[in-house]
Amino acid sequence: MTPEATTQGGGQAAAGPASSDATNTSKAHPRPRSLPPVLSKAPPAAMVIFGASGDLTARKILPALARLADRGVLDDGFTVIGVARTAWTDEEFRAHVAEATPEGGSKWKALTARFKYITGEYNHPETFSTLKAHLDESDRLDGTAGNRLYYLATIPSVFGLVAEALAEHACTRPAEGGTFARVVVEKPYGRDLDSAIALDEQMHAAFDEGQIYRIDHYMGKETVQNVLALRFANAIFEPIWNRRYISQVQVTVAESLGVEHRGGFYETAGALRDIVQNHVMQVLALTLMESPTSTEADRVRDEKVKLLHAVDIPTPDEAVDKSVRGQYTEGFIDGEKVIGYRQEQDVSPDSQTETYLALRLRVENWRWAGVPIFVRTGKRLPARVTEVALTFRSVPFLLFDHRTSRDLRPNTLVLRIQPDEGISLEFGAKVPGEKFHVRSVAMDFSYAEAFAGMESADGYERLIHDAMVGDATLFIRSDEVQQAWRIVDPYLKAWSEPGGGMHFYPAGTWGPHMADLLVERSGDEWRNPVIDLELSGGRLTELPQ
Ligand code: NDP
Ligand code: BG6
Known about the structure:
545 residues; alpha/beta; Rossmann fold; Dihydrodipicolinate Reductase, domain 2; 2 domains; ten-stranded mixed sheet; six-stranded parallel sheet; 19% strand; binds NADPH dihydro-nicotinamide-adenine-dinucleotide phosphate; binds 6-O-phosphono-beta-D-glucopyranose
């Protein structure tokens, strides 16, 4: 972590080891008196966006930059050069920027007035010679000081091509005098293990590993970073964070949206490549890894890699047996009728792409051996919710008979990543009354309430900032990407064989019935995150019967 990053009010500063100094304990409800700056000031730089006319740029990157500018994080010597095939002039690009950032304030508007755009194919050398000339001009006229941040927000199949072309045009090596040249690379990074290794070779021919920032926007979410704080800033969880106390782990990444206008992209990806290989593996690694020796980027990444390395690799038969893939058919979301996946724009009418996926994983190490790890993700599920739920083993002997304790569920710690960010602990309590009935209740921590009035940066804002200041902690190292592909590759291979199977589910339901059976085989069931969400309101709340 850079010195700049440690001054932030973000999640990492809290991620150090718990203090054992009893005189240093904070007050019962510490509230900051004044708000610390959310992000430190970034150095001057020219940011080159490949894919400047695309969806990600309009929906995430430009709004994140606008917020960074208006917070005063961007230097006066910051500018953007967009590159894509759409034939735009600089003025047309600036109009597009303005349309994508209606909330942008005066600082942002002042910066955007000098943004530039290059219309060009990535396989045409002229695109890159024009870019080189623009970069030199920005150093002279805009004060970008020789610093370059390339953002590959384009289709993954051209990532390597762009890196090679940048190297051929002498754009990838930092100039003398402490300047930087860094590249942010979007996901998915490769299509499988072999292509990820091949892409790494292309990238490493152009950039050193230290210049490459592989982005996973889940790592920019405060609640994902808070997994580190929860685990390593508190003494109470670590002793029970293992197979002796935890009976199963469930990771859910559910979306109510369908593929929208991204059908073309999604057909080449599917839920495994789009969500599991990256977002789920990152969340899982932070939740299950050993304690790093510091919050320094490589120490955290070392532990994530070790954890991913311990995830069991199934044989082809096991891969079929331990996975359920599904595709949504027409159904209802919030009472509105929605079409099925095969009817979506740019989707083949006999598509075999999965929009839902459930996996049963094993982590083969001393901490987690024997604990089933269930993972599920899907589009057009009943709600947008991402959470990790750790269920604790039942008591060795239950004092209460079945009739008075039938509403008692195993203790569960739920890390709610989104929405309604927070943490809840479900435990049994006596129902008021003469009879001794016990049932589950939830004790809830809500981010919004505990840190009321404190702003936090969204994932892209945080990560773009970190790339500018050179803090790689939340970015993904080459070996992490490869380990994650190593885990998911067998499923990809197994599904391409006859019998790989596809199970359909109506939009607005929690996925195919087969996925329930996957969990039930272990004597468990999927949680219903919506019920929990609705009932936990930052207080002790009762759970449904
Ligand atoms: P889009 O298809 O919307 O945009 C692709 C961009 O790349 C366009 O600007 C397109 O230019 C440009 N482009 C493609 N091929 C070429 C080429 N040969 N020469 C020049 N320009 C080219 O994709 P997205 O924005 O959705 O996705 C971009 C990346 O971001 C992908 O890696 C995706 O996985 C990742 N991502 C996207 C998310 C999202 O919500 N959209 C979320 C997380 C990651 P033009 O159209 O002008 O030809
Ligand atoms: C992206 C996927 O990486 O993550 C999308 O490409 C998905 O398909 C999105 O919708 C989900 O992100 P979030 O932050 O909304 O959970």
